[in-house]
Write a sequence for this structure.
């Protein structure tokens, strides 16, 4: 016996698959994937690097403050 949540998910999944496959056949998804995923990947990598850089700067600033004080 499925729970109400599982039944709701199954209904949503069937609706989503129908919507997607009626709008875009598989070849269209392949054509869309590269132009979308390349900038998304670059942006995520840049954000990750930015976060690491900020953490390093904060840590070195905290170390400098503790040495000075």
């Amino acid at each position: 016996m499925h729970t109400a949540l599982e039944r709701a998910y199954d209904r949503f999944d069937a609706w989503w698959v129908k919507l997607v496959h009626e709008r875009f056949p598989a070849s269209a998804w392949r054509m869309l994937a590269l132009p979308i995923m390349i900038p998304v990947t670059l942006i995520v990598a840049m954000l990750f690097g930015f976060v690491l850089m900020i953490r390093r700067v904060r840590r070195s600033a905290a170390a400098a403050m503790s040495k000075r004080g």
Remarks:
- The longest helix spans residues 26-68.
- Residues 4-68 form one domain.
